[in-house]
Amino acid sequence: MARKKISIIGAGFVGATAAHWAAAKELGDIVLVDILEGIPQGKALDLFEASPIEGFDAKVIGTNTYEETKGSDIVIITSGVPRKPGMSREDLLDINRKIIESVVAEVMAKSPNAILLMVTNPLDTMTYLAFKKSGLPRERVIGMAGVLDTARYRAFIAMELGVSVEDIQAVLLGGHGDEMVPLPRYTTISGIPLSQFLPKDKIDKLVDRTRKGGGEIVNLLKTGSAFYAPSAGAVQMAEAILKDKKRILPCCVYLKGEYGLNDICFGVPVKLGETGVESIIELELTGEEKVLVAKSAESVKKSILELKL
Ligand code: APR
Fold first, then answer.
1. C-alpha angle 141/68/130, rounded to 5°?
2. Mutate to test the pocket of ligand 1, among 8, 17, 34 (most ligand atoms within 8 A of CB)
């Protein structure tokens, strides 16, 4: 069986760490692309030199052109500018849209059948842009946000309860902004509803911390944004696709009427398998949850309109 090819665009904190997770999991051969000369080459070689120690078989190549990305199965796009303290993800829109437009054109010229996994912020808007510019079907352009946001939420619950992170299942809806909608009603600890472990006010605090989870890291790092958990999220999605695992994960996808929303890329639970998004799962929501989803959708729509596509 030929090895899969995973190209990662942007060899910064998120891109290089994604390469690390993907190589360690032996998901395939990796091509790391960046505009900075020497950086992708140096990081790729360094990572490959770790392979005899860690014992993984994966080619890792760094480059400044797209030649080596030819025929990629998956392309993880992380190129762009990260947030600094005081900035919202939306503040990145003007700079990152130019980067994403040029990157998507280069990627598509070499890998017309790839599945694109978007990580660059503002996430929902950049996913929309990549969907429109790539011409790919919606099943093949997927944004990574919900996996990260639910991971943060699960991490906070595990810390609060002193239980294993492995036993916490959660789902979340909405855009990758401070108006995202974690769903405590659909959160369980080994199948037991979260409400049996914590009172409402405590749950509300965890939800609030989750919403502001990205900002919490930005304020600590001061010179950039989170990268371990975002890159792990992208690689979990890549793994679900490459191994045709049929995992149910919250992902950002283009909606055509689901949840009453149209012409928007938005976080919803999906089934991920070898063809990408294999189905979208529509949850039953309470009136209150519907209001929160509508509010999140409104801010994503506003951002998408700024693209003036
Ligand atoms: N093509 C390829 N790479 C590019 C391009 C381009 N046109 N423009 C910028 N880059 C590269 C930069 O040179 C840099 O190495 O993208 C990389 C981004 O890396 P970092 O600055 O370390 O940013 P990172 O923390 O990895 O975040 C990247 O992911 O989570 C999001 O908000 C975050 O949008 C940001 C993105």
1. 20
2. 34
The pick from 8, 9, 14, 91 for probing ligand 1's pocket by mutation, whose C-beta has the most ligand atoms within 8 angstroms, reads: 14
Q: For the domain 5-143, what is the CATH code?
A: 3.40.50.720
CATH of segment(s) 146-305: 3.90.110.10
202-232 residues labelled b (16+ CB within 10 A) or e (exposed): ebeebbebbbebbbebbeebeeebbbebbbb
**Ligand 1 midpoint to CA 197 (Å):** 40
223 three-state secondary structure: coil
Distance 79 CA to ligand 1 centre (A): 3
The model's pTM is 0.98
What is the full per-residue pLDDT of the chain (309 aa) written as tens digits? 789 999 999 999 999 999 999 999 999 999 999 999 999 999 999 999 999 999 999 999 999 999 999 999 999 999 999 988 988 898 999 999 999 999 999 999 999 999 999 999 999 999 999 999 999 999 999 999 999 999 999 999 999 999 999 999 999 999 999 999 999 999 999 999 999 999 999 999 999 999 999 999 999 999 999 999 999 999 999 999 999 999 999 999 999 999 999 999 999 999 999 999 999 999 999 999 999 999 999 999 999 999 999
**Centroid of ligand 1 to alpha carbon of 146 (angstroms):** 20
Atom 15 of ligand 1 has which residue's CA nearest to it? 12
* Domain spans in the chain, listed from the N-terminal domain onward: 5-143, 146-305
Q: Which residues pair with 168 in a beta bridge?
A: 189
| SS3 assignment, position 257 | coil
